[in-house]
Amino acid sequence: MTINKQIVSFIFRLLANSLGLWFAVYFGLLQMQGDLRQYIIGGTLLAILNAVIKPILMVFSLPLVAFTLGLFTVVINAAILYALSWLYGPLNTVSFIYALLAGIIIGLVNYMVTIVFERLAK
Description:
The protein is mostly helical. The chain contains 5 helices and 2 strands. The chain has a two-stranded antiparallel ribbon. The radius of gyration is 14 Å and the shape is globular.
């Protein structure tokens, strides 16, 4: 993959994360104070946390991920969202359960954007 494709892929992920955050706020799972810029900043921080912290958490929790046939990744996504709400002031989570549900919503939005991106890349 060339550098340009990686940059475009990261931008799509950033936009997908921002859109996923918007859906999670729309459904009442997360609380966000601010406008579109806050969603883009939140999506950027979420993309960075997913790129840096998620692989480390996946390696340390590999036995749990294997034992639960991958379902523990939902808990890892929730932990990353919870960490994001701690790091980024405008984003608030009510509880870990809401972060868990918001992680599922954001994951579904990312999945749909990935499908569209792969079809456009062909």
